[in-house]
């Protein structure tokens, strides 16, 4: 059990550390690097931690899917199910603090070389869409070092730092991450499984921070990702339906293996989130504005150009006027599946900057324009069979949710009633479409028509929900 303790003042920390001992061990040797992770040893024979007065810590991982299905099945409406799913999965305040703490512990290591650096979380830890147990993406920021903006005299002598040079910024980033990765590996208490992935498009050091249980990715020189994080956060804050829908779609996708924690040809959570945002921009009236609109609302203080990419968008939420769309979460979830079940992925690209489909090259199975580096495709890794699976599952889920739209009446004695999955719960059960994996891609045809005729034929033959 761990506790994150915040002190009101620096002196208290100093006095705590003054009384803290270096462990005395006999059969191993210690790396004498002191971190702010302390262990509490109990020298009494009494087992203090088992005393009833000690509160049990809250689990830092999300509930298992079967438990979630049960929990959702007890809700009264699909809207409540979606809200309940978000509550069960979202990061807690303490988990969020733990993430900032791990960043600051890493900063202590990096600061040995770069005392003015900062390490900040980005990605789902802070963009509002993080699920308990998601990885911790960290950004080593070296841009804030003093002296960059020092004014040089027009003539005469002046002093400048001697600094090592390299041909490319990428090489500098790789070298810094390599050394810090080495230090994390050799000196970082609780940091295990360190992998340096320096040849990736965005070089990174990956490791597990055992005390917190976080899988960590440390990157540097990755300002655009910080901007995407801010943008996603903004969209999530504009309307509560955004976060609810993203959580539900991410959970659904994970349950069916559309997304995975293993890198591969899957759709990433980031891509999936952009797909949800795009869908919400396509509602009539739109629930969220386009990125171009957010850029047009920006003031001079919002201007941001990173490596020639225009990353400007408004940061003052009060300047954003939303349209009055009153669709319920239930409607939106059903429509989401319909929308992507019939989306012409072979011809069209998803573009949240314009809020409109754009034409794309047919050779790319899935094209989702990177919001800031507009020549890049965030789903470049995705292959055609993954797109097919996604479409097939959208078709199935669209049908399933319409079959299970109302909560079944509860039989049995109170508290003893059998819980029948319904609504969102049914979407999380293993896929019921036979051979969905091997299904060949269908030619573009409006799914709504297909589903309507399917429903019609079901109505004529059987009025019972399909739960066989
Ligand atoms: P999970 O970790 O899966 O919960 O979601 P995440 O949003 O944190 O995704 P991930 O850890 O894969 O990436 C972290 C952040 O990096 C994302 O939130 C984006 O801001 C950014 N990112 C991820 N993939 C891409 C990509 O393909 N292109 C760009 N430009 N940014 C990306
Ligand atoms: Mg992440």
Write the layout of secondary structure elements.
Blueprint: H1 10-18, H2 65-73, H3 78-89, H4 93-110, E1 118-122, E2 136-141, H5 169-187, E3 191-197, E4 204-209, E5 214-220, H6 223-238, H7 240-255, H8 269-281, H9 291-296, E6 305-306, E7 309-310, H10 329-341, E8 348-349, E9 358-359, H11 384-403, H12 424-428, H13 447-461
Helix pairs in contact: 2-3, 3-7, 6-7, 7-8, 10-11, 11-13
Magnesium ion binds near residues 123, 135 and 137.
Describe the protein.
With 468 residues, the chain is an alpha+beta fold. Among the domains are: 183 residues, 2-Layer Sandwich (Beta Polymerase, domain 2), CATH 3.30.460; 131 residues, Orthogonal Bundle (Poly(a)-polymerase, middle domain), CATH 1.10.1410.10. The chain has 13 helices and nine strands. The protein is globular and about 70 Å long. The site of magnesium ion has 5 residues, from loops.
């Amino acid at each position: 059990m761990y506790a994150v303790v915040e002190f009101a003042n620096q002196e208290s920390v100093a006095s705590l550390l003054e009384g803290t001992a270096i462990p005395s061990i006999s059969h191993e040797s210690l790396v004498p690097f002191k971190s702010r992770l302390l262990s509490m040893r109990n020298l009494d024979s009494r087992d203090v931690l088992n005393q009833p007065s000690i509160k049990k810590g809250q689990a830092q991982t999300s509930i298992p899917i079967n438990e979630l299905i049960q929990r959702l099945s007890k809700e009264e409406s699909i809207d409540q199910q979606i809200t309940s799913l978000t509550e069960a999965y979202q990061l807690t305040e303490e988990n969020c603090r733990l993430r900032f703490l791990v960043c600051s512990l890493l900063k202590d290591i990096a600061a040995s070389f770069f005392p003015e650096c900062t390490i900040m979380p980005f990605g789902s830890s802070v963009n509002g869409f993080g699920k308990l147990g998601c990885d911790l993406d960290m950004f080593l920021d070296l841009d804030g070092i003093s002296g960059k903006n020092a004014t040089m005299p027009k003539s005469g002598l002046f002093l400048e730092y001697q600094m090592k040079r390299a041909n490319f910024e990428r090489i500098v980033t790789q070298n810094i991450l390599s050394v810090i990765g080495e230090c994390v590996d050799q000196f970082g208490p609780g940091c295990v499984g360190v992998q340096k992935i320096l040849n990736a498009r965005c070089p990174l050091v990956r490791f597990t921070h055992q005390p917190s249980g976080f899988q960590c990715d440390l990157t540097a020189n990755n300002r655009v990702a910080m901007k995407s994080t801010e943008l996603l956060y903004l969209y999530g804050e504009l309307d509560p339906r955004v976060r609810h829908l993203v959580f539900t779609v991410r959970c659904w996708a994970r349950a069916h293996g559309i997304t995975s924690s293993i890198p591969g040809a899957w759709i990433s959570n980031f891509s999936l989130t952009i797909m949800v945002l795009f869908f919400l921009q396509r509602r009539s009236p739109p629930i969220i504005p386009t990125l171009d609109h957010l850029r047009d609302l920006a003031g001079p203080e919002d201007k941001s150009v990173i490596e020639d990419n225009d990353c400007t968008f408004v940061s003052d939420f009060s300047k954003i006027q939303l349209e009055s769309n009153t669709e319920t979460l239930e409607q939106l979830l059903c429509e989401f599946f319909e929308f992507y079940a019939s989306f012409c992925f072979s011809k069209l690209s998803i573009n949240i900057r314009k809020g409109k489909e754009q034409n794309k090259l047919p050779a790319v199975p899935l094209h989702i324009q990177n919001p800031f580096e507009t020549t890049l495709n965030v789903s470049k890794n995705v292959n055609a069979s993954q797109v097919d699976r996604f479409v097939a599952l959208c078709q199935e889920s669209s049908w399933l949710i319409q079959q299970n739209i109302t909560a079944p009446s509860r039989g049995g004695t109170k508290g003893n009633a059998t819980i029948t999955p319904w609504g969102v719960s049914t979407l999380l059960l293993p896929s019921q479409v036979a051979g969905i994996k091997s299904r060949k891609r269908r030619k573009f045809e409006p799914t709504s028509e297909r589903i309507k005729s399917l429903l019609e034929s079901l109505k004529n033959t059987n009025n019972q929900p399909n739960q066989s």
